[in-house]
Amino acid sequence: MGWVAEWATGPVGGGFAGTVGAVDGGGHGAPVNAVAVVLVGGRPMAATSGQDGRVRWWDAADGRPLGAFETGRYTTLATAVVAGRPVVLTVGDYDPRFVRDPETGACLWHLPVDDAVSVAVHDLGGRPVAVTGHEDGGTRLWDLADRCATGPVLTGHDHGVRAVAVAVVDGRPLAATSSGMDVDQSWDLDVLVHDLTDGRLLARLPAAPTSAVNALALAAVRGRAVAATGDWAGTIRLWDVTAGTGLVPAPAPHRGMFGALAAGEWAGRPVLASGGDDGTVRLTDLTTRSPLGPDLRLPGRAAALALLPEGRLLAAVDRELVLLAHRPGV
User: Fold this and answer.
1) What confidence tens digit (pLDDT) does each residue in 177-188 have?
2) 133 to each of 11, 130, 294, how far by Cα in Å?
């Protein structure tokens, strides 16, 4: 299997076979922090946030820029469809503006608290629920349709919850959370997994003793919850959540400080995408825990990743975006 770049916002896509070329619209004026995608009428749309303090809204099918608005420099985001309307969720910088119009940034709903620093969305039965991690160590749930808090506040972390990943496994929504942020921190290294239906703590996954987890992904694999953790040393670990034990083999580490993780499903197969500071991107089949071909090498750090249907991967490389297609025989 190989990779084809379908579009890119700059010269980053030029080294791949079949590249359509850079699209008109450019990337961010500073490195990209986060990428989130959502299907709107079957068409993929994407939101990105950068250290230039801007969120941009894209048509991910062809790379057309559709809107942009100002936020803080370190905004984290998620995307959802609420009552048939796409929205962007933004958190960070003690800004309570939460649900926004993706093209203009107009605030549709403020959070009643302003210390959210991480966010993810799950959809159960057509009802989108946001999961936010907070500086006080709590994790909160929000019904996006009714614009209200839902469920208990989840606890267990001693410091701010900097990473959240969600998945629906066997009909139940789960959330994995981590407060790992600093490369030399020595506290609160564990990853917690909660059942969002009733707030039960399902697992406490111990991190490596010398490095904090800063990237998370959660997936359903043959009806069981599998968590992926990436730490500041570049190590990736896979976990059986129910058993609370590590799975082997685990993906090979990335060199340097860690970049991003994203889990999804391609052709009925659960896959994990990982990217590192060394400019590599790796795909792992979570059923067999084996790599899906050789590493992809990018011309810069893979800071954020998002899996799209039909074997596509949206990658943030420094200030640019590139949409890559994973295809056999290329």
Assistant:
1) 998 765 455 556
2) 35, 10, 35
